[in-house]
Design a protein that fits this description.
The chain is 37% helix and 17% strand. The chain is α/β, with parallel strands linked by helices and 382 residues long. α11 (337-350) packs parallel to α13 (369-380).
Length: 382
């Protein structure tokens, strides 16, 4: 006997079948550990903003820009304890969403820690500024000691507030784990050894940062435990967001687990490797390892070898446009911006990176649009 079903009954049967398939997929994902594609929300070109700066309309309108890499200062977002000023981030996130862009978000503590933290009793570490950018050369700067309990409690509170504001915003796809840092958002602490600094209009001797860290009780284990504490705070505050460690190979003072200075070393290379291993173990496919020193001639080999284990991304070391010192070419002239940025992008893409953060100055350069378009296409194909 032939049975002819009505369209409605067929639809109901199909809906039931699809529901059963959805349930099976759900069980596979959560019971069997089958996860979605690694970093599926991240791939692309991100325009790197200046600290606490808004994004130019031309950047937002560029079809080859997939997201905005936003950088903010803690002292600007929480100028007084519990008094938050979210408007700079809100405006940028809303603009990104309106233009179909994603957002990666980072907040710098370090030298951008609000003064009320120290007034509340947090211990500080002072050092002499020896960089050719940022605050005045030879000026005295301060950061919180990373394991100080007052600092950690206040930073935890800020991170929780940040998560309450943006964790459920679908535009914010990536948040940087910051808090163990000094001059930028990267996990780097001062580790100069009293060298002479000479720049136009200034001359001084940098502080012996290594000796001073030893004097305040620094050890490799102590700073790693501080990072783990902070990383767990971010993980709890952003439970469904990709979390990134921005790090390089030589960012920490040469002091071992016992607090002893490591002989004949300018920096401790073990910390970076330990933090990467901890992040992969603790946060799995949520974890991102990012290095901010990509150039035409240099990249960190360790990062290139991680792309099969976790999400990897790069930030350009500098802008290729209008850079007379040829920093993106290892200080070697000539350094045509097109050739230099093209070489840097190739290094990043070929390393297995899912995203590249490129300075806004280069994003706005009309002569670089072809290579930015190529980067966009190659990264989105992953």
């Amino acid at each position: 006997m032939t049975i002819i079903r009505s369209a409605a009954s067929v639809t109901r049967a199909l809906d039931k079948c699809l529901l059963e398939v959805a349930v099976i997929v759900y069980l596979l994902v959560f019971w069997c550990g089958i996860a979605p594609a690694l970093g599926a929300s991240l791939p692309g070109v991100y325009a790197l903003s200046d600290q606490d700066a808004s994004t130019a309309l031309a950047v937002l309108a560029n079809p080859n820009v997939d997201g905005l890499a936003l950088r903010y200062s803690w002292n600007q977002l929480e100028p007084r304890e519990g008094g938050f000023n979210w408007s700079p981030i809100d405006v940028q996130v809303a603009a990104a969403r309106a233009h179909g862009k994603k957002v990666s978000l980072g907040v710098t503590a370090g030298i951008r820690t609000p003064a009320w933290i120290y007034a509340a009793g947090a211990n500080q570490f002072s050092f002499v500024w020896d960089k050719p950018w940022g605050p005045p050369i030879c000026s005295s700067q301060r950061i919180p000691i990373p394991w100080d309990p007052v600092y950690l409690a206040k930073w935890d509170s800020f991170v929780r507030a940040l998560g309450a504001r943006y964790a459920n915003n679908p535009t914010v796809v990536y948040v940087k784990i910051t808090g163990v840092n000094a001059t930028t958002q990267e996990a780097i602490l001062p580790h100069s050894r009293g060298m002479t600094i000479s720049r136009v209009g200034a001359s001084c001797t940098s502080s012996d940062d290594v000796g001073r860290w030893q004097a305040v009780g620094y050890s490799r284990n102590r700073v790693e435990q501080a990072w783990k504490h902070i990383a767990n705070s971010f993980a709890g505050s952003f439970p469904d967001t990709k979390l990134g460690l921005m790090i390089g190979p030589v960012g920490f003072p040469p002091i071992d687990d016992n607090g002893s200075i490591i002989a004949n070393r300018g920096a401790d290379r073990e910390v970076a490797l330990n933090l990467i291993a901890e992040g992969i173990k603790s946060y799995g496919q949520r974890f991102v390892v990012q290095n901010n020193g990509l150039s035409a001639v240099r990249s960190w080999p360790e990062l290139s070898g991680l792309s099969h284990r976790t999400i990897v991304g790069w930030q350009m070391a500098w802008s290729a446009t209008d850079n007379a010192t040829c920093k993106m070419n290892g200080g070697v002239a000539p350094c045509n911006p097109h050739d230099v940025l093209q070489a840097a992008i190739a290094r990043g893409v070929e390393s297995g990176a899912l995203f590249l953060e490129i300075y806004t100055l280069d994003i706005l350069n009309p002569n670089l649009q072809d290579i930015i378009a190529s980067a966009h296409s190659r990264l989105l194909s992953r």
